[in-house]
Design a protein that fits this description.
The complex is a heterodimer of chains A (1007) and B (484). With 1007 residues, chain A is α+β, with helices and mostly antiparallel strands. Chain A contains 34 helices and 20 strands. Among the domains of chain A are: 118 residues, Cytochrome Bc1 Complex, Chain D, domain 2 (Orthogonal Bundle); 167 residues, Jelly Rolls, CATH 2.60.120; 105 residues, no CATH class. In chain A, a hairpin with a 2-residue loop joins β1 and β2. In chain B, α10 packs antiparallel against α11 and α13 runs parallel beside α14. Classes of the chains: A alpha+beta (1007), B alpha/beta (484).
Chain lengths: 1007, 484
């Protein structure tokens, strides 16, 4: 019955009472209907006519002029718009576009007024507008209120009454912390407001802003923009570790880090002078994109996709422009060329990364990112080490090695059953060891001596890595290898080199040319980075992870001197290749080194080595040394097991970027050097480098027309459900004119000039009279302004998927308050992955249900599997996090009711809420149901509502009394145990009503 | 038609904005009152867009039997005797034309031609040549149209499947089922209009599928496909918890909606009435979905026609029968996935098993639809994301061989709903490597599917990030020659 009404559809401008303004009224019509063929893209331009530039539009083309300012009747454009002849008509019938009569009338009046053009509003820096005159000046509490009121008065509307203190507190609590207020908080607040109203509101806002929940609430939004997830996406979709970055975001919002610093760190923290760990960690923002590990893909194709994703995310997040529309051709609507796109692309193109990576762990480049707690533990270990070292040094070194020591240690070493390969035949000069006894399952220690001829080598010393064939092949580069890289050693255990390999490099090995060194390696387990220990000259050395992707056992091959294939052999000598069929302890390796070093070291070196051994075997030192070794090994293992995070890291020489013809990864066009649409948007800051750091400065310059507006608008949308500029992701010419440009600009100006202070911004909005209005309204007002663009009432918006679940956990008393840490796995239907998820033992192909508190953490900590996200979250409109998303849809479907009725977590929360009803609710049904209702909606139920609740509770009680077994079954849902003191029949009936309350529209809506 | 009508309509509320301008408050209140029970007639999420279908459709619904992994066209639907003559010879450069190949065969010294070891015979009046692996499909040769000139741009599973389903190789776009739900809306009050069935063979495993394949992309998430599952709950969260009866659920629902109505009276937000009706539909679904999954009412003859696997929940046969039942009950788009056609090696051994899984049930489905008079307005599609290479992965061998992914040419078949029966369309070169006559691109197939549903593929658009998006991107042309 609605369909015919659509024919009545006319230009839906709510602003008809005002004068025509090009940007607001005319540009959207031209942009939508004309610019595609008469815009700035020369390749698609018809009749050589541009309408996006006034000089061109008013120029005569073959004696015909599109726009004759002041003379609509002579303007060809108007004639064509009005024409019914399919040959003349504009837009052409086949374009599927149509300009309405009302729009044509607007254009006629605009031409009559001289056809003035304006630069697109969002490309002009925001300025504060003078406060408008309003009839009721007492209504305004914040500067923005006067603008809102002025508009309402112009529309003949009045603001709605203020919301009740309880309603405001619930709204503000969700907006600032993502959780509902407790009844105690509401009561206290109501009491305070009766004494000193505005001050009570300010105090409440400050309390909410200071809550550590604030950071979690804000992070949820930023995680959508930053397409954060716990898996890589695509077919294999295995796990990644990026939660340290998620925690950085939470901590930054909680610490109220100025937003410009927040952005700078995420775009270019690694390029800041002496970057801190957190600053480097922050750059994970641009590594949250999907990564493909499907065997056989074309590497470059996907590498280009990742760079493109950074452009897309950064431009949506900060520019509010659809830069990606210019990836294959010049932008159809905005004055952005394909060259502009690839100039922005160039900033993100210098990462040493692979198209195919991330099959079992993080892709490169990655960074070890200990938590603050882990950093504390490391410091503690260092202190314990220092204490031992002091004691060791206090013992004077004995003059000589005890006489029997060598014999004793030799015997001990022999017990370890070392094996040496047969010497190579001359014909197989490069063959070092055939059938070496390397067995990771059992555990193997491999040791070898080498002496490099020259410094600064980057070459394999010994290799069992298959470098034959095409590096693009899925089977390329299986095996193991030891390389010398400058002064460091690198160990690789590889299934496919380098993406599916473990590659670790020593830190501080101090390899010198012309000197014999011994290296020993622990080979065991799955040979991932956390298991590999490297010992140089008898001492275990720290390592850094370069790749941690080995996804299966490396092929077993012969060991060669230097690399396979045509590569040059190692320039130096190699000797003493040995394997031990176990993992040698630190002391054993040290002894082996000393025993074997006799003919390798200079006299001077030998004296040092002897003295070391002698000291260790003096007095109590052996015990001390063992204690030190244990601690050192523990420390290095601890480091190897620290969480890593994928981060941005510049290559020493930037990779040249090119315009890619039609966006094809292999079709290089002209060169594209780093830059932004500087003519159009903002100049490049003086002295700013042409790298990501310079890019951050460009975005954050005070007169940038877009950054602050885009950010502020998104915060506004978070509070009101819709942005001041509705298209939060598109501030280009196709985006909508903001409902209140002065409000947007005032907030943006204040935000920038006030030091990008996020909490201050939120404070000013939630304390405004605009925000404090009630959302209750007449059907007439809802009909006139369904989306509340005029702001004649307070926001009424369905809660997000996270808020709905978190609220259920909070009101039932289940919520675990821990902040941060690895993502957790709450209830999810069993067998959800069956038949969908890849049948391979990659991380995250199964859902191991969490234990204890992990079931009750806030939803932003729920493990986010991209290809199969948590179904309850999706049902309530969580995005899939494949790409940047600046706006969630808010739908209303039958599946939502099913989730609230039957999902284990909601059922458990219902039962826990029921326990609260029975224990805390008071003596009768009315009081008990009222408690649950108040917890869930933030207000006391009215008599008619109590009547429904009490009646339903009584009916359920009667039912369950007749079926006590059913009652017992119902209350068993979930991992928590029902309170045995409560009768099952009572509890089941109350749980039913509690569930009813949790499903109410009012409960899942921010009023 | 104005673009406004295709704009984002996130919610009923927004829809009212778009259409309510000419309405007085009284008329609106009347509409809202009507909504308070179960009338959601105006909601575009339910009834589709105004103006659609664009023209009288031949097909009311679609059953897409997607064969995930890339079935070998050379061993199933596209006979190539020339490969026999070229056995173990290098694929000529004139055929390959520099076409990129996957990392799977990048290390092979040569690309040796691999003939099929399976016989092809002619079937039906049309004389369509079909492999011995698909005898039942051969039996319906006069009902189907085999398209031998399909081609796609992707050469790996994830992008290729995503391309087939959404028109883009990269994730983030709506799937075909979501587009049709968005455009045409629901036909049933008790069932969603876009339903997904995933079948697995218990003896084999496969690559991952992706729940996002039936996602709604940038369309409102109400349009995402609902997976009906073979085991466990047929729809997630459908079953009431143990201990709660249907009567109790009804009482709770009624109680909640009483409160919701009281709330509507004071808050005034029409979104509340939408929630009331959606909640009621959820309750109805709790009955209608299990009914649908229960095959007790099917005759023995019908059950047998789908083959013995029909008794195994989660099998292709069972899902093919369920697809018919869903279609009968008003589901518009049934998307079935059958995994594991990815025969890099051991094709000679695995392909016959896969073919056996699907041959009889797929043919039975077409016959069953026909018998019920539904084939005329039900479009059935059978095919995968790409085909397989005419050269062997590894060495060429008359008995034992494998083939790599191949997107330049492959075959599918279609039946019913506006498609000309008993024909083959398009052809490939002698090697089955390149398309030759009448190439059909994935976007062309999508345009054709939409056409059968009465949708002009260029006019079903959705505005996102300042641009009108559509299933076929800026491409696609309806393959008129195969329309009935």
């Amino acid at each position: 019955m609605f369909r015919p009404l659509c024919l009545l559809l006319i230009s839906a401008s709510a602003f008809a009472a005002e004068d025509i303004r090009f940007n607001r009224d005319i540009r959207p019509i031209l942009s939508e209907n004309c610019f595609y063929c008469h815009g700035q893209d020369p390749k698609h331009r018809e009749a050589d006519l541009r309408l996006d530039v006034r000089d061109e539009a008013v120029k005569a083309h073959d004696g015909v002029t599109a726009i004759v300012p002041g003379k609509p009747e002579q303007s060809e454009m108007l004639k064509r718009l009005l024409s019914h002849d399919p040959d003349d008509q504009m837009p052409p019938p086949e374009s599927n576009r149509k300009v309405t009569p009302a729009q044509i009338e607007l254009i006629r009046r605009w031409i009559a007024q001289g056809a003035p053009y304006e630069k697109h509003w969002s490309f002009v820096p925001p300025e504060r507008a003078p406060a408008p005159k309003v009839a009721d000046a007492s209504w305004a509490r914040q500067p923005i209120d006067r603008f809102v009121l002025a508009k309402l008065e112009a529309e003949g509307l009045k603001p709605s009454a203020a919301a009740s203190p309880a309603a405001w507190l619930r709204r503000a609590s969700f907006d600032l912390t993502g959780l509902p207020p407790t009844p105690a908080e509401i009561e206290a607040f109501e009491a305070e407001t009766t004494l000193k109203s505005d001050a009570a509101y300010a105090a409440a806002a400050d309390r909410l802003l200071a809550s550590p929940r604030f950071g979690e609430r804000q992070a949820q939004e930023w995680l959508d923009v930053a397409r954060y997830a716990d898996t890589h996406g695509f077919n294999n979709d295995s796990a990644r570790s990026m939660w340290r970055w998620r925690d950085y975001v939470i901590e930054s919002f909680n610490a109220n880090v100025p937003f410009d610093r927040f952005v700078t760190e995420q775009l270019a923290g690694d390029l800041l002078p002496k970057p801190t760990l957190d600053q480097k960690l922050a750059t994970a923002f641009n590594r949250n994109h999907v990564i493909n590990s499907e065997g056989g893909i074309i590497d470059e194709e996907y590498r280009v996709e990742y760079v493109a994703d950074r452009v897309r995310t950064t431009s949506t997040a900060l520019l509010g422009l659809t830069m990606e529309c210019a990836r294959c051709h010049d932008h159809k609507y905005d004055p952005i060329s394909q060259k502009d796109y690839y100039r922005m692309f160039a900033f993100f193109n210098n990462v040493h990364e692979y198209g195919e990576d991330g099959r079992i762990a993080n892709a490169v480049p990655l960074l070890v990112t200990p938590t603050p707690e882990q950093q504390r533990r490391l410091r503690e270990m260092d202190q314990r080490m220092e204490a031992i070292d002091l004691k060791l040094q206090a013992t004077p070194a004995p003059a000589a090695v005890p006489a029997d020591l060598r014999a004793r240690l030799t015997a001990e070493d022999a017990k370890l059953q070392p094996k040496s390969p047969k010497p190579a035949k001359p014909a197989e000069a490069r063959l070092l060891a055939k059938d070496a006894d390397v067995d990771a399952k059992r555990g193997t220690t491999l040791s070898v001596w080498f002496k490099a001829k020259t410094a600064s080598l980057d070459a394999p010393i010994i290799s069992a890595l298959d470098r034959s064939g095409n590096p693009a092949a899925v089977s390329y580069g299986g095996g193991r290898e030891l390389r010398l890289v400058g002064e460091e050693l690198e160990w690789a255990a590889s299934q496919r080199y380098p993406a599916y390999a473990t590659i670790v490099r020593t830190v501080g090995a101090k390899i010198r040319p012309g000197t014999w060194h011994q290296v020993a390696v622990h080979i065991h387990g799955k040979e991932n980075a956390s298991t590999i220990a490297l010992f140089v000259d008898g001492e275990e050395v720290p390592t850094q992870i370069r790749h941690d992707g080995v996804s299966g056992a490396p092929a077993k091959r012969d060991w060669l001197l230097g690399a396979d294939g045509k590569a040059k052999p190692f320039d130096g000598e190699v000797s003493g290749f040995r394997t031990y069929p176990s993992l040698l302890k630190s002391g054993q390796i040290r002894h082996a080194y000393w025993l074997q070093s006799t003919d390798k070291l200079t006299a001077e070196q030998r004296t040092v080595a002897d003295r070391g051994i002698a000291r260790r075997h003096t007095g109590n030192n052996l015990a001390l040394q063992t204690e030190r070794d244990t601690l050192w090994t523990e420390r290095l293992a601890f480091i190897r097991n620290l969480p890593t995070t994928m981060v941005m890291e510049e290559m020493p020489t930037p990779r040249q970027a090119y315009v890619l013809t039609r966006g094809n990864y292999d079709a290089h066009g002209e060169k594209a050097d780093p830059g932004m649409p500087e003519q159009l948007i903002a100049p490049w800051p003086q002295d700013a480098p042409r790298n990501r750091l310079g890019l951050a400065r460009w975005f954050l310059q005070p007169q940038h027309p877009l950054t602050a507006r885009v950010v502020v608008n998104r915060f506004w949308a978070q509070l009101f459900g819709v942005g001041l500029a509705k298209s939060v992701e598109d501030f280009g010419t196709q985006g909508e004119w903001p409902s209140h440009p002065e409000v947007l600009d005032t907030l943006a100006r204040d935000f920038v000039d006030g030091g990008w202070d996020v909490k201050k911004l939120f404070r000013s909005i939630v304390l405004s009279s605009t925000y404090r209005q009630t959302s209750d309204a007449t059907p007439a007002l809802y009909a006139r302004d369904p989306e509340n663009r005029l702001l004649a009432r307070g926001p009424r918006v369905r809660l997000t998927s996270e808020q709905i679940r978190d609220q259920a956990l909070a009101v039932s008393g289940l919520l675990a308050e821990k902040i941060g840490g690895p993502s957790v796995r709450p209830y999810q239907p069993e067998g959800l992955y069956k038949g969908i998820v890849v049948d391979a033992p990659y991380p995250s192909t199964t859902w191991e249900l969490g234990k204890g508190d992990e079931l009750y953490r806030r939803s932003l900590y729920t493990f986010w599997k991209r290809t199969v996200p948590h179904p309850a979250m999706l049902t309530f409109d969580s995005p899939d996090r494949e790409f940047c998303s600046a706006r969630r849809s808010r739908t209303n479907t039958p599946l939502q009711a099913l989730v609230l009725w039957n999902e284990t977590g909601y059922l458990e929360a219902s039962r826990k809420l029921a326990e609260r009803m029975l224990k805390e609710g008071g003596p009768d049904d009315a009081a008990r149901t009222a408690l649950a209702f108040r917890l869930a909606t933030g207000r006391a139920p009215r008599p008619a509502e109590i009547e429904v609740l009490v009646r339903t509770l009584a009916q359920l009680r009667t039912d369950f009394a007749a079926r006590p077994d059913d009652a017992a079954k119902l209350v068993k849902v979930g991992a928590s145990v029902p309170d045995p003191a409560l009768p099952a029949v009572e509890l089941a009936a109350a749980a039913g009503v509690a569930n009813l309350i949790l499903t109410l529209d009012e409960t899942i809506t921010k009023n | 038609m104005s673009c406004h009508q295709y704009e984002i309509m996130h919610s009923r509320r927004e829809f009212l904005q778009k259409t309510g301008l000419g309405l007085g408050a009284g008329a609106l209140a009347h509409l809202l009152g009507g909504c308070a029970t179960s009338d959601v007639a105006g909601d575009p999420h339910i009834n589709g867009l105004p103006g659609l279908p664009h023209f009288a459709p031949k097909a009311k619904r679609v059953i897409c039997l997607f064969q995930s992994g890339g079935p070998s066209h050379l061993d199933l639907l596209d006979p190539k005797p020339e490969l026999e003559r070229q056995f173990d010879k290098d694929l000529p450069d004139s055929v390959r034309r520099g076409q990129r190949i996957t990392g799977m065969v990048a290390s092979q010294a040569r690309l040796a031609c691999q003939p099929s070891r399976f016989k092809f015979t002619r079937h039906g009046k049309a004389g369509t040549e079909i492999s011995e692996l698909l005898p039942h499909i051969g039996g319906i040769a006069d009902e189907i149209c085999v398209v031998r000139s399909m081609h796609t741009e992707a050469i790996n599973h994830d992008p290729a499947i995503t391309f087939f389903q959404t028109g883009s190789q990269l994730p983030g776009r709506p799937s075909m089922g979501a587009w049709t739900d968005y455009g045409l809306g629901r036909m049933s009050d008790n069932l969603p209009s876009f339903v997904v069935l995933v079948s697995t063979n218990k003896d084999r495993s496969g690559q991952g599928l992706l729940a996002r394949l039936w996602g709604s992309g940038f369309l409102p998430s109400a349009h995402q496909g609902v997976q009906f599952r073979g085991a466990g709950e047929p729809v997630l969260y459908l079953r009431d918890p143990e201990g709660l009866t249907r009567e109790q659920r009804k009482k709770l629902l009624e109680g909640a909606n009483e409160l919701n109505r009281l709330n509507l009276a004071s808050a005034g937000d029409p979104e509340i009435s939408a929630r009331i009706s959606q909640t009621e539909m959820a309750y109805r679904m709790q009955a209608s979905v299990p009914e649908l999954m229960d095959l007790a009412g099917e005759s023995k003859a019908v059950m047998e026609s789908y083959g013995p696997d029909v008794n195994t929940p989660g099998s292709f046969a069972r899902n093919a029968l369920l697809a018919r039942r869903l279609a009968e009950k008003g589901v518009r788009f049934v998307q079935l996935y059958h995994r594991d056609w990815d025969h890099h090696g051991g094709l000679h051994d695995q392909l016959p098993k896969m073919a056996r899984d699907v041959d009889q049930p797929a043919a039975a489905l077409v016959k069953d639809l026909k018998q019920r008079g539904m084939l005329d307005d039900t479009l059935v599609i059978w095919g995968g994301e790409f085909g397989r290479t005419p050269y062997a992965q590894g060495g060429a061998n008359r008995q034992k061989y494998g083939r790599d992914h191949h997107g330049k040419a492959f075959s599918i078949w279609m039946a019913g709903g506006g498609i000309k029966p008993g024909m083959t369309f398009g052809s490939t070169d002698d090697f089955g490597f390149n398309t030759q006559e009448n190439p059909v691109h994935i976007h062309d197939l999508q345009a054709t599917i939409l056409h059968c549903l009465g949708i002009h593929h260029e006019r079903l658009t959705y505005r996102f990030q300042g641009r009108q998006f559509r299933l076929t991107d800026v491409h696609g042309r309806v393959v008129k020659q195969i329309l009935s």
